[in-house]
Amino acid sequence: MISCPSDTLIVTFVLKQILMAVSFFRYAFQCMGFSATMEREFVNKDLGPTLAKFGYSDVKLMMLDDTRIFVQGWADTMLSDPQTAKYISGIALHWYNEQLTSPNKLTAVHNKFPSHFLLNTEACTGWIGPSSERGVHLGEWSRGNKYSHSIIENLSHWSAGWVDWNLALNMRGGPNWVNNIVDSPIIVDAKNQAFYKQPMYYHLGHFSKFVPPGSQRISVTSSRYHSLEFIGFVTPQSNTILVVLNTQAKSASISIRDSKAGMIFDMIPAFSIQTYIW
């Protein structure tokens, strides 16, 4: 996870563009389609020098801000150029269609450019498919599963954090000026002065609440094949955190072994997420 002293303000600036939106689809909302070469030239000739000239060298500038389908090509084009790389702090990633390419691409980019962080900057459910799949689905647990799966997968491959797109939306999944309705962890029913915490909210909490800033991911191995997903951390307070996700329709028995702390046995219910702290 990314952390800073409590009295420090980190200002980030994302080179906001959606390559897929202008290359493969015709989205109604505003999009700016850079190629990797165009973005490289913009950073090293215009944006980077301008920020430095006016005293904003401490701004954390993130490149790409699109799906990991493009991450290797963009990283090679931009970060292999020293004049561009010196202005870039990290690589911003969206989760859309990430299942189409291996998360090992993130590890490859980290290994090649270890001084530049990876950060998942946008995710939401209900964004694609027929109208019945779009927008708000109150209480749909599978959407929470998708969040936790993505978080575990990306953080296991060197992403430093994971950011939801929407803090709260209305009952329809808006407002949005081009009717781009989606789902959100919190849904607000303004008419009845109420709000609902979706399963996504509670899935996010297993990471945002139990994995504090400054935590470091640690290796966790399994002795046999199973369908559980898991990830481990050590916190700044030296606590060990283990998050386990079960997306299957049946429960699973597990044993957790720590060479220093000992061993426990537990049952992971079907369609559940559990966090262990010791």
From TrEMBL:
Residues 26-211 form the Glycosyl hydrolase family 30 TIM-barrel domain. Residues 214-276 form the Glycosyl hydrolase family 30 beta sandwich domain. GO terms for cellular component: membrane. It catalyses: a beta-D-glucosyl-(1<->1')-N-acylsphing-4-enine + H2O = an N-acylsphing-4-enine + D-glucose. Signal peptide: none annotated. Its EC number is 3.2.1.45. InterPro entries: GH, GH30_C, Glyco_hydro_30, Glyco_hydro_30_TIM-barrel. It holds the Pfam family Glyco_hydro_30. The keyword Glycosyltransferase does not apply. One of its GO terms (molecular function) is glucosylceramidase activity. Belongs to the glycosyl hydrolase 30 family. Keywords: Glycosidase, Hydrolase, Lipid metabolism, Signal, Sphingolipid metabolism. Coiled coil: none annotated. GO terms for biological process: glucosylceramide catabolic process. It comes from Acropora cervicornis. It comes from the Eukaryota. This is Glucosylceramidase.
